[in-house]
Amino acid sequence: MTVQPTEKTSVSAQPGFAGKIWIDLAQITEVVTDADGKRRIRSGLVSGWAIGPDPFQSIEIILEGRRIASAKVGRYRPDVAEIYPSIPHAEYTGFEAVLTGGELPEGPCQIILMAVGTSGKVFVKRFPLSGAEGEFAPSSMAMRTHVERCEIDGSGMLCISGWAVAQAPIISVQIFGNGRKIAGTLPGLQRPDVAELFPHYPNADRSGFFVTASLQMAEQARAETITIEVLARDGTLRRVVTTPQQVRQITLAPDVARADVPEPQAPLPAAEPDAPAQPEDSWFFCDVIDVDTTGRCQISGWSAALAGIDTLSLHYGGAEIGQAITGQPRPDVGRAYPNLPNAANSGFSFDLTHRAGLPEGPASFMVMAALKDGSRRAFEISAMIVPPSARVSPFEDIVLGLDTFQLDAGHATRPVTGAFKLSGWAVARAGVRQIEVFLDGTSLGLAYIGIRREELPEIFFDFPDTLLAGFALSVPARVLKNGRSEVRIVITDRKSGVLENRFTIDVARDAADLGRNALRQKVPFAEVLTGLDILAARGPMPVCDIILRADARPRLAERVQATLRSLDRQAYPHWRVWLSTPEGIAIDDLTRHLPHLAGRVAPLADHAAPDAPGFMLMLRAGDVLAADGLLGPLLAADTTGAPAFVYADDRRPDPLAPGEIAAFHKPGWSPDLLMSQNYIGRAWLASAALLREARIRLPDLAGLGDYGAVLRLSAEAARLDAIRQVPILMLEISATETPALERKALQTHLRVEGRLGRVRQGAAPFLHRVERTGTPGGKVSIIIPSIGARDHILRCVESIRKNSGGAEVEIVVVDNIRRRKITAEGRAWKTWFRAHADLVVEVDEPFNWSRLNNLGAAAASGDYLLFLNDDVEVLHDDWLDVLMAEAARPEVGVVGAQLLYPDGKVQHAGMFLSRSMPGTARHAFRFAASDDPCYFGLALSQRELTCVTGACMMVRREVFDAVAGFDEAHAVVNNDIDFCLRLRATGRSVIFTPHARLLHHELASRAHLKDDFDRSAFLQTWGDLCLAGDPYVSPSISTEADDFVPEEEPLREVYPGHPLGATDQIRRILVVKLDHIGDLVTALPAIRQLKAQFPKAHLSALVGRSAMGIASMEDAIDELIPFEFFDARSGLGRKKLTRADYAALERDLTARQFDLAVDLRKHADTRHILQISGAPLTAGFDNDREFPWLDIALGWERDTVQADKRNHVATDLLNLIGAIGSAFTTARRTIATAADRLPPLSDALRAEFGGLFARDYVVIHPAAGTPLRQWSPAYFARLIDLLIEEDGVNVALIGGPDEADIASNILNRLHARDGVFNLVGRSKLAEVPRIMAESVLFVGNNSGPSHIASGMGVPTVAVHSALVSSDEWGPLGPSAVALRRDMSCAPCYIAHAEQCHRNLACLQSLSPFDVHRLCQRFLALRRGG
């Protein structure tokens, strides 16, 4: 055993974290002046939260050097726990202090908060005290709530009491446990103490509430927290989350049924009552009081009496104004007071007019209640009489409630850290028509309305559509900017009434990782095993020969080692490195710190021609491969020995942000883009067969350089149709070639290929442009449909005449000015057309863009057809030369130009198909600056695209005729998209060039026209392409934005379950046990057990110096690493550590290259040590997913007051080691029955479906039992077609008799039924395992058959929704995967499809082509290559 010395250090709760005190409110609500003229605080409140390295034991409020209050600390604050997840006591950091005294100075004043931690450390915070000068701001908080009692006894009786005040009437107090409503009530109990504290809130004197409920045993066992939700009439909502206190027996006040409960006590001494309170026998509450000077009185609420109410009358100045309408439905009151007579119909309303009018100002009204027993009761109402023009809405017409945020003075109390779902509810008397959400003035779109809200019909009983009044809108992270932003919600009802709600949020996004832009540092071992099995099934495992070029830049050894370490972490094990070094540098000097790799690294000069199929890769020192950097591309490649070139995404220096690295999610194969920039970079693999075809030896490859090698290899691979793309981040590139070197390589490549052209700088310094020499001849017919809207065509034609150079141009104007009801202006334009166009084609028909251009093309005589909108203006004189040079290329179908808005912003830089709205396309980089290269220069790079806009497109005449022009079924929109797609179907390319630039006013000719578009007809033709996805937009890029931002909800393959690794691959283990001596002793059995599970591993223990003596006695520990985290005396807590201390520790630990790191402390304060250990696998205790990055986690019981633990700590530590052992279990089959023991198929079944077994077949179970897991039958049908057409397999549909309708739906959608066998309801359940076992693949939803197939070892692809976690419920087996979208709202655990505000987008966005690509990979497992 060795002991590694380190210097003594100290520690804190979190590196660099000292602590923070946050004040939510510091408000005086009432000031009194004593006999001496001194002003004193009578009531006030200070609340907030305080967090430090240790819990706070006291917080004192000091004013003018005197303590005026002590705060109650330890209140539940889950919002703080979300901000500081690594601090274990963060959720109990709230405090509240009630101010009942203290002398006030003159003028503004400050209070001092002095917080003392358990370690004795003192924190001080100064904060201004509002209201000191009488400027009370009761409206600064719309609502205040306080829960004084929350108890539960052994029988399941729950008792809750407290108070709530608000500016608007409180209409509901709801109690929830574990997401389920338990009970409801209303405030109404007398609370004079609250009225004294908050006199400015209406009904504060009757703000108390008291509720009891009996929980069933199952609910009681789960009732860890209780949520009290208080709702006001104006939509203000507060939630209080608390933990019920366990008591022996709930004590209830007598006669609770009559609601005569004793008054609960407020958190400050109440004034002594003059006399004992008398039992109440009648109740009266106003929800709305609206009175103006004309005498109009609108007052409503509810009233009840034990004797029953006969009439209610309103009085002013001793005279009766009129009587109320009584007996109105109030189900909320009936629910809250079920034993009160007629409570469910206790509503009343006054809508009266006092003929003499009323004086402006405060007034008192009297309501007289005549009871059925003949007695009378009087209730006083205080009102503010205002002029009619100053009447305030009673918040009745439209009401909004928010779920996502709790607001305080119009500000969200919790920060936003990423994408979120804005949800809530909205009701309107006229019905809600739409809800639009704005962020900083920009519309985010319309929210989805229709989520079930069962509590609302009882509250808003006189509003329509309340049951489905919930709404939601997903807000993507890309629209969020760090700092403060304003959210505006605009609700419009069906009578055009509008309610606007504005509030602010604080956005604090993690700048280090704003999406899926990081290299994978580890790959689940189950995924690795499956991938290796697939490659092995194809044939011999290829060896990857990697050229590693070492240059003379600084820190060469460090850069080489970084690259080699990334190779050492590869999921694919078959690789070797050929090192190319500057003269005079020995390989041993570069690999000294990685001795175990010595046999896999050799000089490049020693390489001989490969005698077996393999792949080549060229890296530069400092490049870092992702953990699946070799495995991922190999799975996408043809590994059978044929020529192949596979490229992937990478992280590289951002050309627009010097010094920064960004992820480049690349488009599909684009030769023109490759001529504009080296977009492929070094993220590629080339097969040895391809190098032989290209006549390139491996040692010669390095001499070509990055760009030269890619140009040479891709050109050869393109001729052989051997280029494949895999959309994964393969590596991080350390440096790129200079633009000058790249242009030299490109010029050389053009010369070798025999192409004529001159290379020059492109539209940005890092881009290139190939100017094709020898401009093609021929006439250009420019076809311009026009109705003479505004004078755009005048400027259009003039700019063409001015900027056409020497080109032969024919301007063809298609006159679409209708002669019916023609105006003088229209006749003038017709005359102008004939005078200025070379040819006019008059079309007196309704506007149809396709037909107008077809007629123009038919009349034109040019060799090239340029279709141009009449609102386009030419800006440069070389535009036609540029377009003609590209259109003349034989492989090109159509060319589009860059179009700009009049303000210089981009209107068109190419188009791409939308995944979220199939059948539509977006304009790339719309609204960007004209000279902004945008995402890795794509906006200014000439490149292949799926489509370009018809506002400016050039095509050769013979190409246009070959596809019969434009489809006239597309009259207004999608005609250009359809035309481009038909050209691509003939094998021709669609080109966007930024080197021809024009101005476009857009929609000038058809501003009055609707976008007439038959989407279903378009999808009939192009549905497959839309579902498969635009090949020039990476699946990692969102198609819901124009600016190529990362897809926030990408596809993910989930390989769930064990093993997490191979036992023999765990060579070095780190055990973190930074506790005191006693704690270390209790961990020794666990350390021995860990060593027994990995006997060949070197086990190091990170321990405190005081515990090293005991630790050195343990034979299971091979090495001790001392580190001072706690003081030697347990009572003194943790030491203070600097960032430098942690950095030194990280360097020490990472240099040891641990494979597994385990934290044997249950409390969370040392868990972050695992993250700096460098170990790819980590294990430790967790609670409520506080550490989601742990690979192996075991839950633990928190230190709950007055609750004994189940286990000794040593047992818990052994359980953690047991969990580690389970995670390395190699057996992944859940069904161990041998194939020969499965029940046989009946002779009748084999006879009836004999054709099924004649060739390989795939089993598909298309049902799921619930729409929440059900993939579309239409998608299943398309998947079946793909499997049969492309993979030559049969398909067997299985399921029960009750699933026959789904099967029929699928069968009716198939292109052809040959090869499809419907066994749904035809086979016995006992035969299903045999049917699966003999198949080559199983495909299904997240349902039982998926688990059966995977459990038997059948290759399984399960289509998952976002309902549950696929990591928890994915198919478990040796060859099984779940395919899902990583939705921002997942897992949702909703009960009904109607509750999904996104219409099950998680399933709708999984296309059959996504599933088929995965199926093709898995088919190799039983079919070979």
TrEMBL record:
Gene Ontology molecular function: any one: ADP-heptose-lipopolysaccharide heptosyltransferase activity
UniProt keyword Glycosyltransferase, yes or no: yes
Record-annotated Glycosyltransferase 2-like domain positions: 781-962
Keyword ATP-binding: no
Secretion signal, residue range per the UniProt entry: none
Domain of life of the organism encoding this protein: Bacteria
InterPro entries reported for this sequence: Glyco_trans_2-like, Glyco_trans_9, LPS_LOS_Heptosyltrfase, Nucleotide-diphossugar_trans
Transmembrane domains' residue ranges: none
GO biological process, one term: lipopolysaccharide core region biosynthetic process
Keywords: Glycosyltransferase, Transferase
PANTHER family in the cross-refs: LIPOPOLYSACCHARIDE 1,2-N-ACETYLGLUCOSAMINETRANSFERASE-RELATED, TETRAACYLDISACCHARIDE 4'-KINASE-RELATED
Name of the featured protein: Glycosyltransferase 2-like domain-containing protein
Organism expressing this protein natively: Gemmobacter aquaticus
